[in-house]
Amino acid sequence: MTVETRLFIGGEFVDAAAGGRIAVVNPHDGSELASIAEARAEDVDRAVEAAAAAFPGWSATPAMERGRLLLKLADAIEADTDGLARLESTDTGHPLRDSRALDVPRTAVTFRYFGGMADKVQGSVVPVEKGFLNYVMREPVGVVGQIVPWNFPLMFTSWKMGPALAAGNTVVLKPSELTPLSTLRVAELMRKVGFPPGVVNIVPGYGDKAGQRIAEHPGIHKVAFTGSTATGRKVVRASAGNLKRVQLELGGKGANIVFDDANIPAAVGGSAFAIFHNQGQACIAGSRLLLHDKIADEFLDRFLKLTRSIKLGDPLDAATEMGPLTSAMHRDRVVAFCKVARDEGGEVLTGGRPPERGDLARGFYVEPTVVRAKPADRVSQEEVFGPFVTVTTFRDEDEAVALANGTVYGLGGGLWTENLARAHRVARAFVSGMVWINSYKRVNPGSPFGGVRGSGYGREMGFEAMHDYTEAKSVWVNVDAKLPPFYPR
Ligand code: NDP
Asked: Please, are residues 423 and 326 in contact by the beta-carbon 8 Å criterion?
């Protein structure tokens, strides 16, 4: 498949003003996949101009028509499933079986969900005092900036653009420079299905240049960011200039609690998916396994066996269950966490290094890793963002809850138990935006997604996301009120 490598501004693919290029690398073998145009501040400015010019027309377009275009886009993505899945797998390292079965369908479904929702956002009439009519309209925010990371580039494009466009905003979106290709492909499809020029603008570039400009731009009125907590703070600071609205979907350190009354085989499989899917590069990954004393040995025995059997390999091979990490730098960072663990007295039970297989030597692979660690250790507190799970034991429910809530994060967590009352009690006690009971990492476009505390604020998906892309305008009408003379003369 040939893929666009230029910026998408005002409905056209264009070169970057300064002519800079960035090499996009295949994580399977380190080869160069493409060289893309590098957006800098002046390109972001051009994109914001295009989005601002498109805003009056797009926001006035009947909501049903905006929805129709999103539905057409969802169909076009589905029709391109094979091409998009291969592109995403080659660029990110996701196994093709996952890109085909999860990333592409979830992207289409999310655009379709918000396409259907475009004309369902309604205002309200407030029962106010006699003689007045007060109604509230929901209006789009304006030009919105969206900053997307490298872990699920295609899917996050739909999570961000779906609600923004359905609500009538225009968009300037920056994919990570590591994984921009599927987003540029979506831009091509948007042009094909008839989105007007300027409604969406795509500006791949480095975070400290293009990303920073989006966060501070006076013409952008909301910024939605997914990425690390440290960068989230920078975005908040940069946004202060024009007091733009900010939505932050940041890191996590998901606790995954297995109680002594859990269905152990189900918990073992679910916990492996919780951490190892997408090589652990997920904000909601279940990266801290908390095991009840009584079942810890049995659970760990089965879990280690399963972990060691996971098939690493070329993402394009249908048999591959785990691909490479997305960049060499990130692989080195993940491997370095094993030394951090050992230095604090932790024990690497399996994995913790690149595989020895010669055919994977040039890629950015790391063996799935299980580490025994104490709750206060750095590896139990910091987001590793790789196939790296810590194991800690607990004695009772109170201790499990205290451990689960014992980090700065509050994104998602899971628990495995056959006791119904305990399941709901512990779900309530989690300080987090999401909880999974006897499952993990379920997402759906109708279900709000996001975190609390160090994991950010605001929600993606569902009515909450649509709402967050609108402003309330309250209109007062004097229908037949006889106003007293305020200044009698
Ligand atoms: P970052 O937070 O640095 O990057 C996320 C996005 O923000 C990228 O598009 C990045 O661009 C951009 N960005 C970087 N600096 C700025 C800035 N000053 N202003 C605006 N945008 C900026 O994450 P990393 O990619 O460096 O990953 C580091 C760690 O972050 C991971 O190991 C993980 O812990 C966490 N993370 C969490 C994610 C999540 O889903 N919650 C997703 C990705 C990372 P660029 O690519 O050029 O840096």
From this structure: no
